[in-house]
Write a structure and sequence with these properties.
By secondary structure, this protein is α+β, with helices and mostly antiparallel strands. The chain is built from 4 helices and 38 strands. It has 5 domains: about 1-135, Sandwich (Immunoglobulin-like); about 140-265, no CATH class; about 275-405; about 425-520, SH3 type barrels, CATH 2.30.30.40; about 525-625, SH3 type barrels (Roll). Helices cover about 25% and strands about 35% of the residues.
């Protein structure tokens, strides 16, 4: 007993200068009992040792410090039916500051404790077990026999594989011969098909030549018929023109007679109730009201000749009434297709229909000081008001006409009242390319494709879509792809200027953007773009409302492909803290107004003043895009 204690003490305190090695392992059973023997390569530099038993998993774990296993690390299956060792796992693991060779033994009922006695016989280290009747084995011999059986099985499999390969080769040679025969048959069939195709092509060529000849004859006949029809139409047009000229002369004669006799003269075209012109304070507006309510879908143009056609019922022809005031509308007349409004050269108004009235509005540059020039006409006379003068004028109709255009027969206008309302800016396409859909759905018919910088008239908002007008087309676009002018980032503004320049549509610096839609609910507030910088006139101290302080965060990413775009921000001083925001989310003293593919626009309200703050993604050099 004393000897065993000395051996255990020696194993625990021994410090190996060089790593020990276990050459082999065995289970030896006799009349006195069984022992697990670990055969070391040398009786020098023996390692420290410990053992531990886990009753729940039936596992006895052994550890040897600074030791290697000659048979290698891994899992060794011994005997699954044994009451002693069923299998073992050998691996390295650090323990109490040193690297240990771990041997986990999956054991049966014969081993149920880690209080097993140990003994040392020269270089053999033994773990004595209390149970008897075990089957002895040596690990190297056990696996040598298994390896031999495996080699024998492998040789048998190789022989069978060789035999199968020979059979496969024979079958392949047979298949190749059959393929060769089939290829010869296919070649013969292809040659026959080519001959038939050549014959068919010749017949088709002959038929095509015959059809072309007939087509030329038909086109010649159609051309002759068209020339004849054009000549007849020309004669009819000349006749109609002479009749119209005669009718207008007769009407003018009657008009002159009525003026001479002092009769009442109407200032309106047929079927029109009102025409009004307002000019001043950077804005010009032309308003027209017909007896039949005007709908936006019946308004076409402006076309290449700067003519807007309103599809309303009226006389086929009428006199041309010139508009002398303003630089927006040149003249108005009825035509075969409806009411025609001829714009002044280079006039590009926004077209809006409100309460059945047609309104044209554009930026005005001729009057450089504050004030309005306003005139309206009704059947009984003309009303003129110049807010830049102290007194009002109420000229009669003839005096008013002669003042603006001596060659005009009439000046057309008619309105009881005029209401000035604020406007919402026009929308700008900020994506490289988008589609204008016929309905608020990505699967709807595509009316046309729009590119960066295209201007749109905002009509309505339906969910994630904006209802807009572009030229003569009315449709829907995703509102994530458009922005108002004052929502553009610095980069987008510069790019828009370049696009306008390339298109020949350069807007003078400082010019106001034309309105796109009348809207009495537009907020009356002071706004400006900060282009990514903090407002230097607002102190940070005292802002204690809850929310993210955008002066202390940086924009690092934008999630754009999802249905709801989101911006990813991190704190400037601690990038490990991040935030994810979407449009409408509240921040310190404001909210997220707009998220585009490259920028985030915030609306900040401080001390009763609203401002916009834009934050762009950094480029690859760390600067702002």
């Amino acid at each position: 007993m004393m000897k065993n204690k000395l051996i255990a003490l020696f194993l625990f305190v021994a410090v190996a200068v060089n790593a020990a090695q276990i050459k082999d392992m065995s289970l030896d059973c006799g009349a006195k009992g069984c022992a697990l023997t670990f055969k070391f390569a040398s009786d020098k530099d023996l390692p420290s040792f410990y053992q531990k038993y886990d009753a729940k998993s039936h596992k006895l774990s052994l550890g040897f410090s600074a030791t290697s296993f000659a048979l290698g690390e891994g899992i060794f299956e011994i005997d699954a039916a044994s009451n002693f060792v069923k299998s073992m796992k050998v691996y390295k693991e650090p323990y109490r500051g040193a690297e240990f060779l771990k041997i986990d033994l999956m054991v049966g009922s014969a081993i149920a404790t880690d209080k097993n006695a140990i003994a040392l016989n020269k270089s053999d280290f033994m773990l004595k077990l209390a149970s008897k009747g075990g089957k002895s084995w040596t690990l190297s011999k056990l696996f040598a026999e298994r390896n031999k059986a495996a080699e024998k099985a492998a040789e048998k499999a190789a022989l069978e594989e060789k035999k199968r390969a020979a059979e496969d080769k024979k079958a392949a040679e047979k298949a190749a011969l059959e393929n060769k025969k089939q290829a010869a048959l296919d070649k013969k069939a292809a040659e026959k098909a080519a001959l038939e195709e050549k014959k068919r092509a010749a017949e088709e060529k002959k038929a095509a030549e015959k059809a072309a000849l007939e087509q030329r004859k038909r086109e010649a006949a159609e051309k002759k018929e068209a020339e004849k029809r054009a000549l007849e139409e020309k004669k009819a047009a000349e006749k109609a023109a002479k009749e119209e000229e005669k009718r207008i002369a007769e009407e003018q004669k009657n008009l002159d007679k009525a003026i001479l006799e002092g009769g009442k003269i109407s200032a309106l075209l047929p079927n029109l109730k009102e025409m009004t012109v307002l000019v001043g304070s950077g804005m010009e507006q032309f308003r027209l009201v017909a007896t039949t309510p005007i709908e936006l879908q019946n308004v076409i143009g402006p076309d290449k000749a700067s003519t807007i056609t309103v599809g309303l019922a009226g006389p086929q022809k009428s006199p041309v009434f010139k508009i002398g005031a303003g630089s927006l509308v040149k003249h108005v007349t009825w035509g075969a297709n409806g009411l025609k409004i001829q714009l002044q050269p280079n006039a590009k108004p926004v077209i809006v229909v409100q309460e059945g009235a047609l309104i044209l509005q554009a930026a005005e540059k001729t009057i450089k000081k504050d004030g309005f020039l306003f005139w309206s006409a009704h059947p009984d006379g003309i009303f003129v008001r110049d807010w830049m003068k102290a007194s009002e004028e109420k000229p009669n109709f003839e005096t008013f006409v002669n003042k603006f255009d001596k060659d005009s027969k009439k000046i057309v206008s008619g309105a009881q009242t005029f209401h000035l309302r604020p406007i919402v800016r026009e929308l700008i396409v900020v994506a490289d390319e988008i589609e204008l859909f016929a309905a608020p759905n990505d699967n709807a018919q595509v009316l046309k494709r729009l590119t960066f910088g295209d201007r749109l008239v905002s009509l309505d908002v339906k969910g994630i879509y904006c209802k807009v007008q572009h030229g003569t087309h009315i449709g829907f676009v995703n509102k994530r792809a458009v922005s108002y002018m004052d929502e553009l980032s610095a980069v987008q503004t510069e790019r828009l200027k370049q696009v306008d320049k390339e298109r020949g549509e350069v807007v003078a610096d400082g010019a106001e953007v034309a309105g796109s839609q009348l809207d009495g609910l537009y907020d009356d507030r002071v706004t400006y773009s900060s282009f990514g910088r903090r407002d230097p006139f607002v102190e940070i101290k005292g802002l204690v409302e809850e929310g993210i302080n955008i002066d202390q965060v940086e924009l690092v990413g934008i999630i754009w492909e999802s249905d709801v775009p989101m911006a990813i921000l991190v704190e400037s001083k601690n990038p490990s803290i991040s935030y994810t925001l979407k449009e409408g989310d509240k921040i310190l003293n404001g909210k997220v107004l707009k998220i585009t593919q490259t920028d985030v626009l915030f609306l900040i309200q401080e001390f009763g003043v609203s401002r916009r703050y834009s934050m762009g993604l950094p480029d690859k050099f760390g600067g702002q895009k």
